[in-house]
Amino acid sequence: MNKIKVDNTLEMVLIDNQHAETLYQLVKLNRQHLREWLPWVDHMRSVEDFRKYINSSKQRYANHTEMGYVIMAGQVMVGRVGMYNIDLTNKSASIGYWLDKEWMGKGIITRCCKAIIEEGFSYLLLNRIEIRAATANSKSQAIPERLGFKREGIIRQGEFVNNQFVDLYVYSMLKEEWQKSALTDI
């Protein structure tokens, strides 16, 4: 899917070459905010770094292992969300996300995750979707908790961020649980 309409104000657009400059500027503006929890931020120092990343993301999309989107609020890019580590054999994937600090607290990531989860279960026919969040990152943990994901456990020292290992909570949602929760939302 090249575009996913989230609601009247948001849409997710498949990442492409024309997004490199804007992504670079967005990360540059949010570097301190993002680098606290994301290990890749310090490695993204130029538009060319983003071009390389986008090309590899497009290759993973072609290989059916990733669906990476930019989040658009009208004409303004406000962040990224994606389905990663897509494993069609085992019908599973992970979701990752980040947002411009100025746009936090408006439910944007929750709404985008809801849309991408729908896509994963209906279009990709996944059975399991996972979200990982650092045990000290309560804002990131709030997303899967708000969406009804189950916290399964901790991956000890699961990510290397800012020259130290951080523990990650693992959250999951199964297709049958998502379908049941959709019925209770009616």
TrEMBL record:
Pfam families: Acetyltransf_3 (PF13302). Residues 21-176 form the N-acetyltransferase domain. PROSITE patterns: GNAT. InterPro entries: Acyl_CoA_acyltransferase (IPR016181), GNAT_dom (IPR000182), Ribosomal_N-acetyltransferase (IPR051908). This is GNAT family N-acetyltransferase. It comes from Niastella soli.
